[in-house]
Structures are given as C-alpha cells and as structure tokens.
Amino acid sequence: MSSEAEILVRLTVNGAVVARHVPVRRSLADFLRHDLGLTGTHVGCEHGVCGACTIRLDGEIVRSCLLLAAQADGAAVETVEGLTESGEIAALQQAFLARNALQCGFCTPGMLVTAADLLRTTTTPTREEIRGAISANYCRCTGYHAIVDAIETAATSRTGDR
After folding, report:
1. What residue spans of the chain are helical by DSSP H?
2. Using an 8 Å Cβ cutoff, are 69 and 26 in contact?
3. 110, exposed or middle or buried, with CB in 10 Å at 0-12, 13-18, 19+?
4. Tally of domains in the chain
5. Which residue from 140, 142, 134, 87 is spatially nearest to 111, judged by alpha carbons?
6. What is the pLDDT of residue 54?
C-alpha cells in the first residue's frame, strides 16, 4: 500500500493565512473545495476551458483547475466567497438576480469573478468588451445576453451612467 506524497502549502485565502499538508498532485480547485470547504469554486471541465473554477491569484484571474495547490504556495487567493464577503461583487450579484443572468448557477461564480476583474480594470465597458471578457466562461443556460446585461447594469450603477 503506497500513500501519495504530501507537501506543506501556505497561502492567504480570502485574507486568511492557511497552511495545510496536501497531496502533491492536488489541484488548487480541489484544495479550495475539499480542504477549505470553499465550494463556490466549481469544477467543470478540468481543462481550463469552461471558466467555472475561475479565481484570483495574486490579483490576476486564473483557472484553479489548471494549477496545483503547491504552485499557489505563498500566493494570495481570492474566491467568489471572498469577493462576496468583501462586498466587491455585491452590485454584480444584485444585477445578476435582477437581470435573470443565472439559471442553473453552475457558471455563476466564475462569471462573477471574471466580471469583477473586468470592472476593476474598465470603468464602463462596452457590450463588446463585456462579451470579450466573459468569452472564456461557458454558460449552457442563459445564452449570455442576460449576463452581458447584468454586467452592464452593474457597471453603470457604479458610475451613475444610465
């Protein structure tokens, strides 16, 4: 009987310092979900294509299914739970609800993290810029129009442009 080798991983997750021994081959997505109980990070394709596992790593959005937990050692990670707790995505969450931009909800956390990143860098994105930003996030339910509407609504509510 062989056991998988483990490594100590230390990182900051949603502002809290975390240290855990994890199997060397554990993905960052699985670490967040299974070791830390942060189940807002969804795992869909496990190939980095669907965007359901999108998080921030040292301020940049990444696909957590493509990274090992060990690769995040020393990094700062922000998940949809952290962005919710900080209030950063409150306007987006309200707009997603108001514009019916979620149905099954599976893609929603990744969409919210991606949209928050767009709104951090672009004050009032055009609909084309919004579509470009979310183009790497799959949604099988909404057809994207309501998601684009919601992001546009959140952006204009922040700036007062209506």
Report:
1. 28-30, 80-86, 90-98, 108-121, 127-134, 145-159
2. yes
3. buried
4. 2
5. 134
6. 96
What pLDDT shows up at residue 161? 54
pLDDT at 91: 96
Report, in angstroms and rounded to the nearest whole number, the Rg of the chain calculated over CA atoms: 16
144 close to 103: Cβ distance less than 8 angstroms: no
Task: Dig out the tokens for 23 from the structure.
Answer: 């199997």
φ, ψ at 152 (rounded to 5°): -60, -40
Nearest CA-CA partner of 94 in 159, 162, 161, 155: 155
Cβ atoms of 80 and 137 within 8 Å: the answer is no
Range(s) of the domain holding residue 67: 6-83
3-state SS of 22-37 is EECCCEHHHHHHHHCC
Nearest to 115 by CA among 88, 141, 134: 134
Low-confidence ranges of the chain (pLDDT < 70): 1-2, 49, 159-162
Kindly give, in sequence order, each residue whose CB lies less than 8 Å from that of residue 161, ignoring residues fewer than 6 positions away. 124
* CATH code (residue 33): 3.10.20.30
